[in-house]
Structures are given as C-alpha cells and as structure tokens.
Amino acid sequence: MPFTVDDNALLASLDLLLPSIAAGIDAGLREAAIVAEHIMQTSPAHGDQSGAAHASSFAVVLGSGAQAAADAAYSIAEELLTGFEGHDGKPEAISVPTLPPDQRGILLGRPVNYALNLEKEGKAVVGPTLREVAEFMTNRAAEGSRAVLG
Amino acid sequence: MSAPLTVRSVKSAFFSLLKTDSAGQATRDALANGAQSVLTYASFRASPQAPGPMLVIRYGPVTGVRELVRTFYPTIWLYDDVQKEWNRLNDLIALIEPLYHTESIAFCDTRYATGIGEELTDPTVNRPCLPLRYQVRGRF
Questions:
Q1: CA angle centred on A38, ends A32 and A42, rounded to 5°
Q2: Distance CA A40, CA B131 (A)
C-alpha cells in the first residue's frame, strides 16, 4: 500500500517563512556592513590628507536606504574637499545598483574621484576590506537567518 | 552579586587583559616598554613614535541593544619600528591569541571577528602595523 502525504500545507508554511529568513539575513548583513565601514574609515593604508577618503567611506546593505547612505557619504566628501588644496581630488557620486528581491549584497564605497587611484597605488582600502570581511559577512548572514528560525 | 556589565566595563576588561592582567605578562615582556607599550588609540596619536613593538587598542563600534545581545568590535593594532618590518608583530600574535578566547571576559563571548588583517604601513607615522580584529558579545 503506497504511503502518501499531502504536503501542500507544509510548502505553504515554508513560503510564509521566507520573508522572515530574508529579514534575518538582512539584519546579519547590516551588522557586517557596520564592521566593514569601520575598517575602511580607520584603515591606515594611506595618509588621507583631506580626511575625505576616510570620512566618506561607507558600507551599506543594498536595498531601501542604500542610495541615501551613498548620498550622505558624498556630502561628507564634498564638505571636506571644498577649499582643500593639498591635491585636486573631487567628490564623485556613487549610483547604487538595484538587486532583484531574491538577491542580497553590501556596497562598499568611497565617493571621491581618486578612490580608484588609491586602490592601484598600494594604498588600497576597499579591496582589502572586502577580503577581510567576506567570511565574516557570510557568517553574519547565516547567523541572522538562524536566529529567525530558532 | 556582580555589578552589571556596561559598554565601558567591557571595553576596560578588553584593554586590561593586555595592559595589567597577569595573563598578559608574557605579551608585555615581548613589547618595547612593557605595559607602557599597551596604548589606547588616543594615547598612540599623542606619541606615535614610541619604540616598538607596541600594541594600540582601538575601540570599534558597538552594535545591538542591551535587551538582546550587543556586540563590541575592538581591534588590537600591532605596531613596530620600520626596520623591523612585520617579523616581531607576527611573533606577537601567538602571545596575544591565548588571551582572547570565549571565556576571557566574564559573561561575554570573545573571539575573532575578521581575525588577522593584512600587513600594512601606516604612512602617517611610517611604521609597519597589522590588526587583530575581535568581537565581544554579551548583554551590556
């Protein structure tokens, strides 16, 4: 005699869980972003003559609020570079990408037009920070998900 | 009954393990000037050319809310004199690591966050350095 199970109710319940799991992952990623931002803002990899490169560095979970974070960072760079004559660097706006609802990401940014040069001149911050926090981000996302599931 | 944990007391406990705790003696013995070579970041900025090797504790962000669990992210920056490069700093890691384990701060869970960072040169003081990044979780 075949043994059959109607699993529609089970699948429906799992569907209801998905948003909670995503929220848990987002919470974990937000914490990872705080750490990544701290690493970038305190990195001694370069001298940061104006203070703009450090102060405007940001890390944010992609989604609502991300563009606002990028805009706020741009304002900081603009403020610190206005009137600064130590080099001819300028603030440079960062356009935040949009991800499909089932994808997650963290944006690391430095809204100055010499950020790329710093990365190439042995004064890199974004790349090393990403390397340093990659595993940590994954762990935090997993822990956030686990916390929701109990 | 012990006093409740606070952000300040947890920061102090993290610092004291290296600065004054008997467990940190072997580490202090390996530094240029013993306990004087264990500094907060503010003290380091005031005398950035103190002899190496030295340890600079930088208190990072504190996340979360007390009602649940907070996480504090301190970093121990190892600095040495330029001609020594990173050799002595890498040797110091083995002395520091045993100090910071899950039980080392009462009622908290202490462990590496991102762990051992890259070897860097701090161009503002022209000295080799590398970070050990930790996390301390607890209700504080």
A1: 150
A2: 13
CA distances from B46 to A121, B58, B105 (A): 28, 14, 28
What is the pTM for the complete model shown?
Answer: 0.90
Phi, psi of A39 (to 5 degrees): -60, -45
Q: Which of A26, A29, A30, A34 best probes binding to B when mutated, by most B CB atoms within 10 angstroms?
A: A34
Q: Tokens 């705790």 belong to which residue?
A: B21
Q: Do B120 and A44 touch (CB under 8 A)?
A: yes
For chain A positions 35-54, those within 8 Å of chain B (CB to CB) are 35, 38-39, 42-47
Q: Which residue of A has its CA nearest to B75?
A: A39
Coarse DSSP helix, strand, coil percentages of chain A, rounded to the nearest 5 percent: 55, 5, 35
Q: What is the pLDDT of residues B15-60, one digit of tens each?
A: 999 999 999 999 999 999 999 999 999 999 999 999 999 999 999 9
What pLDDT, in 10s, does the model give residues B87-127? 999 999 999 999 999 999 999 999 999 999 999 999 999 99
User: What 3-state class would DSSP assign to A79?
Assistant: helix
More confident residue, A2 or A18: A18
Residue B111's DSSP bridge partners are B135
How far is it, in rounded angstroms, from Cα B79 to Cα B52? 6
Q: Is the ipTM of this complex over 0.85?
A: yes
